[in-house]
Every structure is written in structure tokens, then in C-alpha cells.
Amino acid sequence: MLYLAYFIIYAFIFIFGAIIGSFLNVCIYRLPIGESIVTGGSHCMTCKEKIKKYDLVPIVSYIILKGKCRSCGAKISPRYAVVEALTGVLYVLTFMYFGIDSCVEAVLVCMLLSCLIIVFFMDLDTRLINMPVVGTIGLLAVIKLVLTLTGAAEFSNPLSLKYTLFGALVISVPFLLIFLFSKGKALGFGDVMLVLAGGAYLGLKAAIIAAFIGLITGSVAGLISKHRSGDSMFAFGPWLSLGIAVAAFFGDYLADLYLIISGLK
């Protein structure tokens, strides 16, 4: 019975995550073009026909429709289903990692991951990072700090005000200097604000790990992109988002492991 109860709980979390993923798809598409993410029904990108409510079931509708618009038969990007499934899976993994009992931390991390998914795909498409989304990450950092200081919730990596500030500044200041000296050619201001907000949420040690992962994966992605297209310009935000996401789970552990291996701890 216990296993059944957990299965039902995680199934519910996955379904809820997939529904949120559907909303994230709306944000990824509409934010860059200035459309409202609250008003206006979903519509086909080709024929502009409004999508019926029964065709808006996350993942399932895409499978039933075989990836095509019911009205005009135009192909629907598989990314919509991918984002929905990815969000659902990440939500489940988050609650499995932090535990149902630590639901406050799990919820905050799920919200963080949701913001990072928007940043990842939106920057990949447009090379733009939406500031309100980054601001939401900063707000999550403030909420986490307040909950930690007041003892209202326990976290696996509790933060002090000092570590929050250090986490916000240790990477963002060097990034800001690179942005200024390169006049925005090496990286964008959105990247600076992303590591500022993400670092504030993660704290000092995890922020360094996030930046390291982002730099390594971003460098590899940049080299591949340049080899394929010859264009040295590429989106850095997705890889910083990946680094922040990994560090939200394993940042402190990886930092401590490095210190132990290097003999500094």
C-alpha cells in the first residue's frame, strides 16, 4: 500500500509538472514577441485556428494528433511535448531527491527549474534572456533566504545573508567585467543577470560549480556551433541554466568533493 501511495503521489506530480510545462511552452513562444502569457487562447502557428480544449492535454494530445494540427494538418514541433515531459520528469526527480517531507525546498527548486527551462529554450531560439524570468529567480532566492533565516523551513544547503551575497557576486562581477570590456560581444547582459540571480539562490560554493558547468558545456557547444555554421556567436544562457540546475541538486556536494580531493578541506 505504501508503494501504491508513492506511485499515486509521483504520478500526480508528473501530471502537474506536465501541465506547468504546457504553460512554459506558452512563455517560451510569447515572451520574445511581446504577447500576453495570460490572455489569448492557444492557436496553431500556421492557420491561426484556436486549439480546442480537448487538444490541449499535455503530451497525450500531441500523440493522439500525431504531431499535426487538427484544423490544417501542419506539423507541430515535438518540442512542445518534450518540454511538457521534461518538466514533469524534473518535478518528479526533484521531489524524489529532496523528499516529500521537504516539500518547501522541492517546490522552490521546481519553480527554479521552470524558470531555467524558459531561459534555456528561449535563449536557444532568440539569443535573448527575459529579465522578468530572471527576476523571478532572484525572488526565489530572497524567499529561500527569508525562510532560512526565520527558521520557517529547512534546506539541504541553508544560506546566510553573507553566503547569499557572495553567491550572487562571485561569478556575476567577473561576468559583468567581461561584458563591459568586450562591449557585449563575449556574453550578454542577460547572462550576467542570470548568474547574479542564480548565484544568490545557490550560495557561494554551488554558484562556482554552476558557473564551471556552464562554462565547460557552453564552450563545447560553442565549438560545435562554430564548426557547423562558422558563426562564433551562440547562446550562452542555456548552458548557464544547465549549470544552475545541476548545482541546485549537487552544487555543495561537488564543491566539497573537489576541496577534499585537492586537500583543501
Topology overview:
Layout: H1 2-30, H2 60-64, H3 79-98, H4 103-126, H5 131-150, H6 161-181, H7 189-202, H8 204-229, H9 237-261
Helix pairs in contact: 1-3, 1-4, 3-4, 4-5, 4-9, 5-7, 6-7, 6-8, 7-8, 7-9, 8-9
Helix-residue proportion: 55-70%
In terms of structural class, how would the helical and strand content be classed? mainly alpha
- Global geometry: globular
What is the rounded distance between the termini?
A: 45 Å
Largest sheet: none
- By oligomeric state, this entry counts as single chain
Number of helices: 9
Characterise this structure.
By secondary structure, this protein is an all-alpha fold. The protein is 69% helix and 0% strand. It has nine helices and no strands. α3 (79-98) packs antiparallel against α4, α4 (103-126) packs across α9 and α7 (189-202) packs across α9 (237-261). The N and C termini lie far apart (45 Å).
